[in-house]
Amino acid sequence: MQINSVSLGAQPTASPEKAQLEKVAKQFEAIFLRQMIGTMRQSGGGEGVFDSSATDQFRDMSDARTADTMAEKGALGIAEMLLRQYESRSPAAPAAPAPGKSA
What we know:
Elements: H1 16-42, H2 53-73, H3 78-89
Helix pairs in contact: 1-2, 1-3
Protein name: Rod-binding protein
InterPro entries: Flagellar_prot_FlgJ_N
Organism: Sphingobium tyrosinilyticum
């Protein structure tokens, strides 16, 4: 019985280009999550007694770290979907010749 991994992190990277694509896709997912969390915070209610610009800055840094962690773990799967879409539209690389055979 063969079990294939769905997670991008468990798969070995085939090329430097694919590794770069994975990195950029995760960064995009992190930016998306930061925007989503920020929007959720803005709609969350009024100011509290202890709110200040320092509290807001700390909350923003905490939200950014949370978004980065979620993106690294592939929480929403946006990066994986972007990679699948890119791979389906990119031309397939030519197959390498078998070892011991000349081209």
